[in-house]
Structure formats: structure tokens, C-alpha cells
Amino acid sequence: MTVEAQRIELFFEGIKKLPEMAQPVEMSDADRLHQVKTTFLAKLNRRMAVDLESCVHCGQCAEACHYYNATQDPKYTPIRKVELLKRVYQRELSPTRWLRRLWTRDITLDEVNEWIALVYDSCTECGRCFMVCPMGINIPAMVNVSRQAFANAGLIPVELRAMEQEQYAGNTLFGIGPDQTEAAIREIGDKIGVEVPFNKEKADVLLLTSVVEVMVFTDQIASAIKVLNHLKLNWTLHMDGFEAANFGMLSGFEPLQKRAGDRIVKTAKKIGAKTILVPECGHAFPSLRWDQANEDEQEFPFEVLTMAELMARELRNGNLRVKPIGKGKTVTFHDPCKIGRHSGVFEEPRAMLGALGVEFREAESSKTVNWCCGGGAGVFLLNSAADLRQGAWKIKQAQIDATGAEGVVLSCASCRLNFEKGARNNHWDKPIESLLSLVAENLDE
Ligand code: SF4
Ligand code: SF4
């Protein structure tokens, strides 16, 4: 077994222990229900009201959802996942609420408990349903509000709660904080013969990392270092703001989402960074680029880029040079939902694969209608979602197999973990590679 395979196994074993680490959230049943309802009411806006009034019950969102497709169970119909939000809207805010109250039941805590498995286990907030809905109903945005409401009621699933509590209380994840991260990355730097520029007082680029990279996919960190040095950028990894993973976003616990985002923004401002570079981590990018920017309500004095965007830009500018691998290597690309569909980064990874000269096979459903790997939005951590995740991953596997490509390239560590798990469970032996690592291995120095 390779070192990486051992790390992956250890990580999966660690996930099984997360429920023991979660602290209970004491709250009366009445308070929990009150929290859910008041959060719904605080978050409902005009856009959601229009969405909740517009559904024509065509069922197209069901066909688009990997969890419905994998199970054919109508309970996984996407619009049904926001049923509780809809009923609170209909009874409390809709223009015809006085009438609707006659036939619309108030929500109960039993229903809230039932819906935990729908808004966490069976929704990766991938947005595929949103893409196909003829009414343009933004279901993932409303699932996200449901997660926020459940988080305020102390009803986050145990695995995500353990991670949220740890990151909120101590700025560590799996026991790994600034000191452990710096030590681990220093070691990675030593292995590739590079002194890592930690904690510079001034730098143009603030590179982030994620705990999954530190624990499992260290090749992605080594590759980021190689690419930034190849580009001769003035960059740093700063231990005041280094962790891209945001368990506030994944769990719906907004105070943590803001706290984790603030750490990075403050650090970037302090060192005068012009660019924050998000590692290959799907949810980290929209959390910082969109949610944090909206929350701060002011223009960032820096840009927030994915590694793929930086590499493609520098390739265009002639600063990044790669050695072509050649057509002997046949690959397809998996678009991480949060970087692709949510953020529009489609062409940059393909430009990099084009520069590498590999034979590229596009999957039948890709880019805006790409199938999710089944593990996004923290679902890869939920032990209760194992079967759903596997069912969803088989759709992905079939799509990749149909391309005839020898392997798959991706740019998200969570997707990569989910692919590794799916591959193990299904005896699938195609190479699963990081785009960043593929580029770093083929730099033309
Ligand atoms: S966002 Fe994705 S996972 Fe969630 S309901 Fe829509 S298609 Fe399904
Ligand atoms: S696709 Fe849109 S309109 Fe059709 S059932 Fe789903 S949410 Fe309703």
C-alpha cells in the first residue's frame, strides 16, 4: 500500500470516530423549534418568496438530482427538501397567509428531525436541480438556509458538529492547528528541497491550504509550492490565516463561517496581499469569494482565485511553462460543483490539460450539468450517508467509464476523497489525479 493510500485509510477511520468527539447541544424542544422558525423567517427574502410560489411540480429537479437518481425514492425530490421552509413561508409571510393557514400545517420538531437527513445527508448543494428547473428555482440556496436554521437549533449531524465545534473553539481541525500545519508543510518543503516562506510580513500572494491536504493529499501542497516558485511570485503561507476549509459553511453555523473567513481576510489585508489563492478545495472558494464578500458588504482589496484560475492566467501570460505529456495519456475532468457550476471556473482546467497535450475526453454531462461526486457540502463526512453517497458515485463512475478515458483529473480534495472511497468500494482502478499535481509534475523549468 502506498503512503497516500495509507493516509486515505487513516482518514476514513478517523471519520468513524467523529461522533465520539461531538459535544451535545442542550436546548429544550420548544427552543429548537423556535430557532428553526425564527431563522427561516429571518432568512426568507423576496427571491425565495418568488421561488416558493413558482414551482409547477414538473419533477425535472428530481431527474437532475444524483440522490433521487440513485434511489428513485420520491422523498429525495429536491424541492421537497425545502418543504419546511415553504410551509413557514406560506403560513407566516405569503400574501395569502390568512387563507393558507386553513390548510397548511405548522411545522413540528418531529418533522425537523426527519428533515435533517434531507438537508444534510441527501443534498450536496450541488446546484444541478437549479440548472434544469424551468422556473429557475434556487433549491440549494434554500437548503443552505435550512442548514442554517437547523444549526441554530443545535441539530447539526454529529460528524459535522464535531468539526464545527473544534474549528470554532480552537482553530484546529482533527487536532491540527497552526503549529502542526507549519511543521507538516516545513517537512513537505524539505522533501522537495524548498524553504517555504512562512509568515512574511508583506507578500503579494497569500496561499491557503486545507486540513485534508495536510493529512492526506500532501502532493497538492508540494505542487502549490512548486508552481508558485516557478512563477517567481512573492508569496507566503501565514499561520494567522491558512485554513481554507470552513465547517461553518458546511454545517450551516454562520458565526463560524464568518470567523473562519475573517481570519483569512484580516491576514490578507495585514500583509498587503493582492491575491488570495484557494487550494484545491471546492467549498472553500465560494465561501470566501462569494459568501464572505457579500457578508462584508465591501469590495475586497485583493482577488480570490482558485489554483486553476491562477495557472491558466499565467499560462496565457507566458509565465507558466509546461512540458507536454502527449496523447498517450487519456483523461477526463470532473468539475467540482462549487468551483464549476457555482463559480464558473470551467475553461481554466481544460486550458491546463490542453497545454499538457493529453488526450482529453469530455464526459457527456459536464460543466454546468456535471454530476456531483456525491460527497460535497460535508456529505463525505457523514457516516449515515454512506449508501446514498455510494449510489450517487456510481452515476459518476458510469459517466467517466463512458468517456473511455484511462483516468480522471479533478481540482477538489473533497471530491478526490469521495472518488477514492468510491473506487475502493467498487474495485475501480482508474487513476484519480489532482490537476495541480499534474501541472507541477510537468513544469518546464
Ligand atoms: S442541490 Fe444537488 S444534491 Fe441538492 S437537491 Fe439539488 S441536485 Fe440534489
Ligand atoms: S424543476 Fe422546478 S418547477 Fe419543476 S418540480 Fe422542481 S422545483 Fe418545481
What count of domains describes the coordinates?
A: 3
β content, as a range? Answer: 5-15%
Helix and strand succession?
HHHHHHHHHHHHEHHEHHEHEHEHEHEHEH
Reported CATH architecture of the largest domain: Up-down Bundle
Taking all residues together, what is the mean pLDDT?
Answer: 96
| Distance from first to last alpha carbon | 32 Å
CATH classification, class level of the largest domain: Mainly Alpha
Please bin the fraction of helical residues.
Answer: 40-55%
Total beta-strand segments: 8
- Detail the poorly predicted runs: none
Number of helices: 22
The best one-word shape is globular
Determine the CATH topology of the largest domain. Answer: Glutathione S-transferase Yfyf (Class Pi), Chain A, domain 2
Bound molecule kinds, no repeats? iron/sulfur cluster
Keywords:
alpha/beta, binds iron/sulfur cluster, Fumarate Reductase Iron-sulfur Protein, Chain B, domain 2, globular, 445 residues, 4-stranded parallel β-sheet, Glutathione S-transferase Yfyf (Class Pi), Chain A, domain 2
